[in-house]
Design a protein that fits this description.
Radius of gyration: 20 Å
Number of helices: 16
Protein name: RNA polymerase ECF-type sigma factor, putative
Keywords: Sigma factor, Transcription, Transcription regulation
Shape: globular
Strand order of the largest sheet: 1-2
GO biological process, one term: DNA-templated transcription initiation
Distance between the termini: 31 Å
Strand content: under 5%
InterPro entries: RNA_pol_sigma-70-like, RNA_pol_sigma-70_dom, RNA_pol_sigma70_r2, RNA_pol_sigma_r2
Helix content: 55-70%
Number of strands: 2
Pfam families: Sigma70_r2 (PF04542)
Length: 284
């Protein structure tokens, strides 16, 4: 049923139906943006790259063969675009590997918050947690990040994952397992969210994050107003029951991050002013 609806929307879009195209964009834009955000860390980079991806999707809409789910075709374009593009400046600055990330965290002094400060900085503390965890993802290489973001955080199954990444299911599972192992090993030894005995606690690092400019209590980036969290928006129902049962606590923490739905409200209007888009979609 979902495929039939998407197919009709694609056909209508190619016939010049702007409302149908807008429905497609609104349906998938939240996923595209949030995948970009988890992969690139920077809100601005995620907006820019998601727009680039949508331009590719729309300019190639007439090449869609209606042989697979539209969503699979869309995510393949998104993944390939992010794998092929050069490193963004924020990504380059942050992605120093787990050893470098550990050194950076240890260089931030621990400062215990008073009860009053905890109340005042409640939202900033949550921002520090999400920011730090998002930074951990940047320690993986970009392919690992994408595989982990799609496979564990957004819960695509192994068959679909292998199709999107154009690799065998065995290879996909191995790469996902390797990404998990590297990320979870770091968290197991460093992060107090996973092990309370670990030295790095969000509350004690919040002041340091603020002083270094990683967190601005007056201008939150990751913990802004939102309606739902990522776990409300997994891409497909997991076919592997065992995976659902034994989901790692590490992954649960990432899936509790905000899912931003309102990114780039004027995205379609900005794209439709391009002459090449008007020609493809037969728009006046």
């Amino acid at each position: 049923m979902k495929n039939n609806i998407d197919f009709e929307l694609v056909k209508a879009s190619l016939s010049g139906d702007k409302d149908a195209l807008n429905t497609l964009v609104e349906k998938y834009n939240g996923y595209v943006f949030n995948i970009c955000l988890k992969t690139l860390y920077s809100h601005k980079d995620a907006q820019d790259v998601s727009q680039e991806i949508w331009i590719k999707i729309i300019t190639r809409l007439d090449t869609f063969q209606f042989k697979s789910a539209f969503s699979t075709w869309l995510y393949k374009i998104a993944v390939n675009h992010m794998l092929d593009m050069s490193k963004k400046s924020v990504e380059q600055a942050i992605s120093k590997g787990f050893a470098g990330y550990k050194d950076n965290l240890e260089g931030i002094a621990n400062e215990t918050l008073t009860v009053e400060e905890e109340a005042i900085l409640k939202e900033a503390l949550e921002e520090a947690k999400i920011s730090c965890m998002s930074g951990m993802l940047m320690c993986l290489d970009r392919e690992q990040r994408l595989i982990y973001v799609l496979g564990d955080i957004f819960k695509i199954d192994h068959k679909l994952g292998s199709e999107i990444f154009a690799m065998s299911p065995v290879n996909y599972r191995q790469k996902l397992s390797r990404a998990r192992k590297e990320l979870f090993n770091f968290m197991n030894n460093q992060c107090s969210l996973v092990n309370r005995e670990n030295p790095c606690t969000c509350s004690k690092k919040t002041k340091g994050f603020i002083k270094r400019g990683y967190v601005n209590p007056d201008k939150l980036i990751f913990n802004r107003s939102f309606k739902e969290k990522i776990y409300h928006h997994q891409l497909v129902h997991q076919s592997d029951e065992l995976d659902r049962i034994k989901e790692d606590y590490h992954t649960q923490l990432f899936r509790q991050h905000p899912f931003e739905e309102t990114a780039h409200k004027n995205l379609l209007e900005e794209i439709l002013i391009r002459p090449e888009i008007k020609n493809i979609l037969k728009l006046d």
